[in-house]
């Protein structure tokens, strides 16, 4: 019996490993950063529609997207597939149009 105890050291702490937090606040941080900079965003909806504008505010279930040449929209988050900065779209288009060397 003592041989077994020697092989396996006693636990120093009776506490279990901490479970990660359910919320990291990463989503809130991202929205706040884009709102403060009035970053032009492309929002792709679940049906494939692409909307361009900047995020004025957000809450648990929706975001308000302000647009320059169209009505502002209140979008439910569950209807959003993904979003990204419009600047990234322009960068991708430029890279595609550059002739190969």
**CATH class descriptor of the domain at 28-94:** Mainly Beta
Report the CATH topology name of the domain at 28-94: SH3 type barrels
State the end-to-end distance.
73 Å
Helix content: 25-40%
- The oligomerization state is single chain
Anisotropy-based shape: elongated
User: How does the major sheet shape up?
Assistant: 5 strands, antiparallel
Strand content: 25-35%
* CATH architecture field of the domain at 28-94: Roll
**Average pLDDT:** 86
What features would you describe in this structure?
With 101 residues, the chain is of the alpha+beta class. It has a domain at 28-94: SH3 type barrels, CATH 2.30.30. The chain has 3 helices and 5 strands; from the N terminus they run H-H-E-E-E-E-E-H. Strand 1 (41-45) and strand 2 (50-58) form a beta hairpin. It is elongated and about 75 Å long. The model has no long low-confidence stretch (mean pLDDT 86).
Characteristics of this structure?
101 residues; alpha+beta; five-stranded antiparallel sheet; 3 helices; elongated
């Amino acid at each position: 019996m003592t041989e077994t105890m020697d092989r396996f050291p006693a636990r120093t702490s009776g506490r279990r490993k901490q479970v990660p937090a359910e919320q990291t606040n990463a989503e809130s941080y991202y929205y706040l950063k884009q709102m403060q900079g009035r970053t032009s965003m492309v929002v792709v909806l679940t049906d494939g529609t692409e909307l361009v504008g900047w995020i004025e505010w957000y809450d648990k279930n929706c975001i308000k997207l302000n647009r320059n040449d169209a009505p502002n929209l209140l979008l439910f988050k569950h209807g959003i597939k993904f979003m990204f900065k419009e600047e990234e779209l322009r960068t991708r288009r430029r890279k595609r149009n550059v002739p190969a060397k």
